[in-house]
Design a protein that fits this description.
Elements (H helix, E strand, L loop, with lengths): L17 H4 L6 E10 L4 H13 E8 L17 E4 L2 E9 L5 E9 L2 H8 L3 E5 L3 H12 L4 E6 L11 H13 L2 E4 L2 H9 L7 E3 L24 E6 L8 H14 L5 E6 L5 H5 L7 E7 L3 H10 L2 E2 L10 H8 L4
Parallel strand pairs: 1-2, 1-6, 2-3, 6-7, 7-8, 8-9, 10-11, 10-13, 11-12
Antiparallel strand pairs: 4-5
Helix pairs in contact: 3-4
């Protein structure tokens, strides 16, 4: 058992689902919790719904409805979501690993006004950027408000950040009441920036339950032929799909009696390059494009293994979804 006291420690209700929690006593019945995010991603939707059942009042303040490189349809049913007045800076980031990707920096200009209007008891702000900076400034004048920064990062994903950004993060870490981390690498990263371990608590990723396959698995007798591999994610440099294609081609060439089939779910700028690749006869590809949750469920059911290549993700939600589906 942990020996330290954290601002996140509480006794969760003895419930197994959101439906069950509707009849359970709220954990924080008198608390208005405001959660500031860049946008409501599908995995956060269900986490937020669960959180809303545990607080007296729960409000989401979102910088934008959705980011430009996402194909998801914004979903906020059952939540109180406020969209901010935001200045968005778009630039191409160059990571030390060698990949490039579009980077959206959101500066939510009305954060102070939103918090002043909502009068929260506690604020959670995602990441260590502008929304956390403005939330910390609000907290300076509202000392009775608890401010938590939720950080989703790793040492690898944050490599190459500029000195100004690191200095701001060090300052913010000292000003918040608590920090969450999504894995041991994130914890090491925060502590290297000067975080007090007493303020740190884990907050793991949660998969989108609509995507996980929950039916019976197909029994395999002997070696599957072909071996069906599945990758779910953007076809972008950060995801390492071209490097994986090279390695799969090399493996297939060296093992001509092993047939492989690789299905890629998702779109992105590298789609054409993948389609034009020269492949050995025992390696086939299918580019499925963007799929809805029900289609992704079917892919988890019909493949033998998940392949998750990446050059910079701090974690991949598809790993959670795959394991929840019984897919290695």
């Amino acid at each position: 058992m942990p020996t330290t006291t954290s601002p996140f420690e509480y006794a969760p209700p003895a419930v197994n689902s959101i439906a069950d929690s509707n009849t359970a006593a709220r954990v924080l019945p008198d608390t208005h919790l405001v959660f500031l995010v860049n946008f409501v991603a599908p995995n956060l939707l269900h986490v937020f719904r669960e959180m809303s059942e545990r607080c007296g009042k729960f409000t989401v303040v979102s910088s934008v409805p959705i980011e430009g490189n996402r194909q998801w349809k914004p979903e906020t049913e059952g939540l109180d979501v406020r969209i901010q007045r935001t200045w968005t800076i778009t630039r191409t980031a160059h990571h030390p690993s060698g990949y490039r990707e579009p980077n959206y920096i959101h500066v939510p200009l009305d954060t102070w006004g939103q918090l002043r209007k909502l009068k929260p008891d506690a604020v959670v702000s995602l990441e260590l950027g502008a929304r956390t900076f403005f939330s910390a400034a609000y907290r300076t004048f509202k000392r009775d408000v608890t401010h938590i920064a939720a950080v989703l990062a790793s040492e690898r994903s944050e490599a190459g950040r500029g000195g100004l950004r690191l200095a701001m993060r060090r300052s913010l870490i000292k000003r918040v009441d608590g920090l969450t981390f999504n894995g041991p690498s994130c914890k090491r990263y925060l502590m290297a920036l000067g975080a007090d371990e007493q303020k740190l608590s884990p907050w793991d990723y949660a998969a989108d339950p609509r995507k996980a396959f929950s039916g019976p698995l197909k029994a395999e007798t002997g070696q599957p032929d072909p071996l069906k591999l599945l990758t779910v994610g953007q076809l972008s440099e950060r995801k390492g799909v071209l490097q994986s294609l090279t390695l799969l081609t090399q493996y297939a060439t060296a093992h001509p009696n092993q047939r492989l089939h690789w299905s890629l779910v998702g779109d992105g700028p590298l789609g054409q390059a993948i389609r034009e690749a020269t492949l050995p006869s025992n390696l086939t590809l299918s580019l499925e494009g963007h799929c809805d949750p029900q289609q992704i469920q079917q892919h988890y059911q019909s493949h033998q293994a998940m392949l998750f290549p990446t050059l910079g993700d701090e974690w991949g939600l598809v790993v959670n979804e795959s394991l929840a589906s019984g897919l290695p």
